[in-house]
Amino acid sequence: MTPGKPEGISLSMKAAMNLTEHLMASAERELGAFIGAVSELFGKEYAQRATEDWLEEFERTELDPVGRIPETHPEFWPVTIAATARFAAWLNRNGPCTSLRRSDTTSPVKVRR
To answer: Which helix (H) or strand (E) holds 49?
Structure first.
């Protein structure tokens, strides 16, 4: 073994850990925003269902051949779009309970950017 090789592995592991931390933080922000929007529009009762949809879509995320989320596209908005479609389909089939429906759901949704 060369003296520089263990250090190279260590640096590589640190870089991988930094990327993983970045991806996790990004996923947490995206999931948090999604849950917040569902909770605001439909209430906390529906936020649990929407969370499950988001996590299932996250698990279905296409990975690269090594089994990682591609570094070139670490955004998670496609997961949120798919989860929103699943949640909307579920809502369409089951309909929100009248007691759980917010009275102001007909008002426009404000999108933060």
So the answer is: helix 44-59
